Fold:
Amino acid sequence: MKRFAIIFGVLLTFLSCATFQKSRDENDADYIAGLIDSGNSQELSRLSAVPFLLDRDIVALGPDVAVFWDSLAKGGLRLGAVTLEAVIPVFGDGYKEFADTMEAKVFFSKYVGPGARILRLSAGSGGKLLLIVGSDVFSRKIYGFKGPF
Structure:
């Protein structure tokens, strides 16, 4: 049991390392961009939190989030290779990246999970987008999408 505790402590220290987090953020960005490029709306819907922040609007129902991802796929949005430009904390004024509104502020304070981040991406196809993502060792969640702009 003591050996397990030591291994777990070392692993936890490694996972909290800033370099690991940057790698995780880049991996999340590439994975989600790949799903968008391949038109995999089912997986995007499965990963999406409900409610979901779309630009400056809160999408309150799961089927509506699925319609958004389906429409994006049918519209043929392709991002190409993405570059992670910035990681913005969701606490404080982070909500202003999406919209400087009371609705966005409440969404971030009420629905965005602990440890979530805003990823600002530059798309290879042109434009930028924002993703609100949360992830841990075993899962990832998309809380919001804005773009391309």
